[in-house]
Write a structure and sequence with these properties.
single chain, 9% strand
């Protein structure tokens, strides 16, 4: 029953075994299964024992809410050593069902339905007021630059994909189409200089297949080339693209 420190000192006083340490006696006691007995008032980590009468009462009233169940049990039997957590574990071990799932049943009305909640000053500070515009709102005319260096602009037209009242588009393409009409299928707009320059004169309509010859495996790096070399790189790329297009076999069958 002695705590390990007193146990060790008593052993040394009795036998004088200086070769035996406190940790050795602790290990011996554990190996042989010698119990030191429960510490007075300590129940943490230990399963409580209940009488048949207590178990019967707990089973008959197991559908109660856990805290009310615990309070009623302690009052009924004077068991101040039990807690709501221990009774919850007991209820789970015994498989006593409460009939509650913790879920809203289909068609169930929330408790606050039709009720006006009391005014809360702190909550009111974060509520939207009528006519208030969010700080993240970006109206028509707002511009931004994406991570690729292209300029986007918000135009006053409905977004065909989301139905929003405004639409964010590439500014260079929007201006080019305003001047020249829609970009044909299979074609793209290639920047001739600085991407921030969205004037239509700074963008040229080219086939999609031309782009790899400008910045692909040919390693010409058109975008980073000096301004005086860009016209030559563009001309060579167009020539190679045209030659490659003529070499492609026709997909049409020759009539026999």
């Amino acid at each position: 029953m002695l705590v390990i420190g007193d146990y060790y000192r008593a052993f040394q006083a009795e036998f004088g075994r200086l070769d035996v340490l406190q940790i050795h006696l602790h290990g011996l006691r554990k190996r042989l299964g010698w119990k030191v007995g429960p510490t007075k008032g300590r129940t943490k980590g230990r399963r409580l024992k209940y009488t048949e009468a207590e178990i019967a009462w707990l089973r008959d009233n197991s559908t109660m809410e856990i805290n009310a169940w615990c309070t009623a049990f302690r009052k009924q039997f004077g068991r101040d050593d039990t807690t709501a957590a221990k009774l919850h574990s007991l209820r789970k071990r015994e498989g006593w069902k409460t009939g509650r799932t913790g879920q809203f049943d289909k068609g169930a009305a929330p408790w606050s339905k039709g009720k006006k909640l009391p005014f809360n000053a702190n909550s009111a500070k974060t509520q939207f007021k009528k006519g208030q515009i969010p700080h993240t709102y970006r109206g028509a005319g707002h511009e931004r630059v994406d991570r690729h260096g292209y300029v986007w602009v918000v135009i006053d037209q409905p977004n065909p994909w989301t139905g929003a009242s405004t639409w964010s588009v590439h500014k260079h393409r929007y201006l080019w189409e305003q001047a020249n009409g829609p970009v044909p299928e299979g074609m793209v707009l290639k920047c001739l200089g600085d991407k921030l320059n969205t004037d239509p004169s700074n963008w040229e309509l080219v086939p999609i297949g031309l782009l790899p010859r400008l910045n692909g495996k040919s390693n010409r790096n058109y975008d980073r080339a000096p301004a005086e070399l860009k016209p030559t790189i563009m001309a060579v790329a167009k020539l190679e693209h045209a030659v490659a297009a003529r070499r492609k076999p026709s997909t049409e069958r020759t009539p026999t």
